[in-house]
Queue: 3 jobs
Job 1
Amino acid sequence: MGKLSVKIKIGDREYPMKVDAEDEAKIRKAGKLINEKIKVFRGQFGIDDWQDLLAMVTFDSVVEQIDVSNKYLKVSTLSQKLDKINKQIATEI
């Protein structure tokens, strides 16, 4: 598939970009999630400065990414341990 021209509004600005057609929904969802976080921080902390809002959204997003990464590592480690146990059981049978 080809590239699509889309405009994503973040805060009070529109950002034109070209994206692969299969990525359009993901890109639009990302823009929506950013705007939702902006709205939350604005309401929760009364922040009106765009730079501060975007910094808080960025910080919050990175913390979430670290949490997801840590959970993935735990699941991956557990999966490896289970594979090892399954192999030990299979050789004993």
Job 2
Amino acid sequence: MGSLRRLVLDVLKPLEPSIVELVQRIAALDGVDGVNITITEIDRKVENVKITVEGDALSFKELKAVVEAHGAAIHSIDEVAAGDRLIEDVVTTQD
């Protein structure tokens, strides 16, 4: 079975902890090479965020545990990649 290389998650999190603290906790996980967190919507008490994680051997179980330990919930897995290399989507336009 191929190792997970990229995960893109749609997450609902409370305003605290901040995305700075959350990104640092995720980045500290074994196998993680990089993490981006983008706020997509802010409400009075919560934020919707997109979390993109890349690495050579990601553990969804560990990532989920960190997210949930910070009071957040994963709404969906929007992208997943595995294998020896990452494949980028190609966007084409029609004339």
Job 3
Amino acid sequence: MTVQTPSYILFYKPYGVLSQFTREAGHLSLADFGPFPKNIYAAGRLDADSEGLLFLTDDADMNHRLTDPKFEHERTYLVQVEGVMDEQELEQLQKGVLIEGKLTKPATVKVLTGEPDLPMRAVPIRYRKTIPASWIELVLHEGRNRQVRKMTASVGHPTLRLVRTSMTFLSLDGLSPGEHRPLTVDEQRELFKLLHAF
């Protein structure tokens, strides 16, 4: 009997694409990209209107260890928001904000002085002439539903664009929207070491 080797793939999800293999409401899905191995799925989703790193695998244990909140793995996001956050609002995000009756875990927040080097989005960002936009980098250790958008909205700054740039030490480096690559042997080894340290 042949034992199939698990697949571990990094995918740069473009704007408007679902983090699943079936289309819904006219959105493209992962099935429109690839080709990917059978029985593979995303470990931690991104909404259709978010972009960035997806980790695809058919390894259920790996999926669990990457997504279960008790493991608290870092997820880094570049976030364009409406307006400019002041120190008090940034501190609120760092300490935790109340979302649906539950406080978010402490986060790391950094204001970016310029616009990050990201590919142009297929659908332009909506701009309001009277309100400036700014960018922050947000590092979370949990992955609640639409958490980043709810966090920035809770301090009065709706999210305009959201890009996940990394999960643990894995990043978008070398990938363009719609591209994917398998993890190297060294990356697999390091990821196993990290995830099984808990």
